[in-house]
Amino acid sequence: MSISESPTRTSLASEYQQQDALGLAELVRRGDVSANELLEHAIKLAERLNPAINAIITPLYDHARAQIAQGLPQGPFTGVPFLMKDLISELAGTPISSGSNALRQYTSSNDSELTRRYKNTGVVIFGKTNTPEFGLMGVTEPKAFGPARNPWNTEHTPGGSSGGSAAAIAAGIVPMASGGDGGGSIRIPAACCGLFGLKPSRGRTPTGPYYSELWDGAAVEHVLTRSVRDSAAMLDAIAGPDSASPYPLEVRNDFLATSQQTVRPLKIGVSTRSFVGRPVAAEAVKAVEHSVELLQQLGHQVDEVDLQLDGEALADAYLTMYFGHVAADLDYVAQLLSSRPSNLDVELTTRTIGMLGKRISAGEFVSAKRRWNQFAQSMALFHQRYDLLLTPTLGDEPVALGAFEPPLLERIGMHIINGLGLHTLLLKSGMVKAMAMDNLEKLPFTQLANLTGAPAMSVPLYWTANGLPLGVQFMAPMGDEGTLLQLATQLEQAQPWLQRRPQLQEHQHG
């Protein structure tokens, strides 16, 4: 008998939409629904909704059914359908394309440590989600798979690089999915899709055995969720060093318990000034003003602050790391495929960035990395006066699809530069920085937490006049996810967002 036929059970369709991941796991534990029933319902939702949003690029339905048949571990999320971002975390026997045509045929031979920890929570992995090529963009529009679309308005981006995961959660296919954050890639899609997104502290979650650290420590993996408690409970389950961890934090697995304790009155500094000196849209400012009013009503002190950050140095340090790692990634992929970087089937922008990375000297890379400490020291001084920093998450509402696509002349220019090997000249011309700053104008607030290693979160407290979500960001001192989670729980209770859902027009882009 299916759940909808049982006179003693609520219909699965409505229950599935109302519950977060812990809520669904509780239904399984009580015997109100089985893991199989949840999975088949999630698959039906995916088949119905995914054509409109292109969030799931690799269905793993049989893999999920086999997981259940083999017996699920008893964990906090036993029986809950789960999606994995198609980047970094490897799942044995399944494709991991990293959003690239170059790796479309590549299959993981073993689970990564984080995947093993996800599986130990009892989640049922039934698909991989869309991501930009190698996770490089703040939008999810890979040439290999086509753009992921925002369920709130499918002509707009769900953000990146965890855009497929965010779109699937916002559409109601799953309550939780994996993501990673190297420059905002959890917080940006959370802000675009009306979700909760926590970037943990550097070293909080494992990166082994394939990596010791991601992007020199700028990147960290976790999940995107609808509820705060799901994020906290998953962090409890996956936190802690592994054999590859270079800088393990103090091991703690009490984030869920901490999140449910009453937050103390906080002193919060707020800034809506772009870190890179570009204009910030009125809607992004309004999102922060709305949050300030709510925070003050809840008894927190909020002061406007001037961070005195060197935005140009911040952008330079970030871009140097970014270019260098793309160059190294292309070398790694070429080695993996027994090929040469020049022969890889990668996007024009990726190829150009990789070639630019080759032109940066070891000395320039190390000098840029050393500047990360300056930003960490600036934030340490800030946190002597304030518990948290509040900013917009984005510089504007979620952009239209194609907004980050290079114009025709730039594409022609990249072809010429790649053909003639003029990358050193391009770097010296300042054109690269100008192009990068144009993109950072929309996303100027998130990279600071990546370079300093501090935890940060995007909280869905505001929707624009166009009906699009626009999250706000809070940054805490290194290692203090607890305060972020406590505040997020208070905000979630004061202005609930769990049941706020988009009206997705199905199949319009099938």
TrEMBL record:
GO molecular function: catalytic activity
Superkingdom per UniProt: Bacteria
PROSITE patterns for this protein: AMIDASES (PS00571)
Domain Amidase: 37-485
Pfam families: Amidase (PF01425)
InterPro entries, alphabetized: Amidase, Amidase_CS, Amidase_dom, AS_sf
Family from the record: Belongs to the amidase family.
PANTHER family: GLUTAMYL-TRNA(GLN) AMIDOTRANSFERASE SUBUNIT A, MITOCHONDRIAL (PTHR11895:SF7), TRANSAMIDASE (PTHR11895)
Protein name, entry field: Amidase
